[in-house]
């Protein structure tokens, strides 16, 4: 739709959101039908591991065990030194930090250790879901993603060395922090003006710093010339 009607961007964005797509119209691997993106696109630790765990895996565990049951399990777990205690459970947490993500990841196996029978029951009867037309297949991208992690590590080494945390932190400092000082009006224009102002200030500071060194060098040459003249005298 977007290629036929490029001016209907808003309709295109609504359509891809409903289909849970990211909006890439022409992926660069389109002409390579036998290629597997998981082999050459490295997973990002923050998004593919920590955030995916909290946004999907934790919700799956809550659905299987029940919110009250899972919260009760977390309240019984003995807290390790250096990790956050979840005495009231995790099902009602709203704002969670990366440290909390790691703590929940350490506890989740013990908290859901008795749900294996529920998962096996699901696998035994999931064919009925397809036969009744509730779901057509089980080709779920979120489930396929972890299968490429081991392959990418074998081919390209540890995933942490390809981390995008540095660039994301720069995005926070250069975009998100200045945006908080705005009035939420004309967001893009304000960010462009801010970045333009930063660039001009940087260029001005660089030029004055270079000129200062030039002037300092000329003053040193003049002082050296005066010293030589005094020695001759």
Short description:
The chain is mainly alpha-helical. It has ten helices and no strands.
Explained architecture:
The chain has 233 residues and is mainly α. It is built from 10 helices and no strands. α9 (165-180) crosses α10. It is extended, with a radius of gyration of 29 Å.
Helix count? 10
N-to-C series of helices and strands: HHHHHHHHHH
- Low-confidence segments, given as residue ranges, are none
Q: What sort of overall outline do the alpha carbons produce when their principal axes are compared?
A: extended
Strand content: under 5%
Return Rg in Å: 29 Å
**Taking all residues together, what is the mean pLDDT?**
77
Task: Tell me the distance between the termini.
Answer: 88 Å
* Approximate helicity band: 55-70%
Structural class: mainly alpha
In total, how many beta strands?
A: 0
């Amino acid at each position: 739709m977007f290629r036929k009607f490029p001016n209907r961007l808003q309709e295109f964005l609504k359509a891809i959101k409903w289909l849970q797509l990211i909006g890439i119209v022409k992926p660069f691997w389109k002409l390579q039908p036998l290629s597997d993106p998981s082999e050459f696109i490295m997973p990002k630790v923050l998004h593919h591991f920590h955030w995916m765990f909290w946004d999907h895996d934790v919700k799956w565990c809550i659905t299987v065990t029940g919110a009250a049951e899972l919260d009760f399990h977390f309240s019984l777990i003995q807290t390790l030194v250096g990790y956050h205690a979840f005495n009231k459970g995790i099902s009602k947490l709203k704002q969670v930090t990366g440290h909390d993500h790691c703590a929940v990841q350490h506890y989740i196996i013990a908290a859901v250790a008795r749900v294996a029978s529920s998962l096996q029951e699901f696998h035994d009867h999931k064919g009925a879901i397809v036969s009744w037309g509730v779901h057509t297949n089980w080709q779920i991208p979120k489930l396929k993603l972890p299968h490429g992690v081991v392959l990418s590590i074998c081919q390209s080494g540890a995933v942490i060395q390809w981390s995008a945390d540095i660039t994301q932190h720069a995005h926070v400092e250069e975009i998100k922090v200045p945006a908080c000082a705005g009035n939420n009006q004309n967001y893009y224009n304000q960010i462009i003006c801010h970045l333009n102002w930063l660039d001009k200030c940087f260029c001005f500071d660089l030029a004055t710093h270079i000129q200062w060194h030039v002037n300092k060098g000329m003053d040193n040459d003049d002082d050296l010339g005066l010293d030589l003249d005094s020695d001759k005298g």
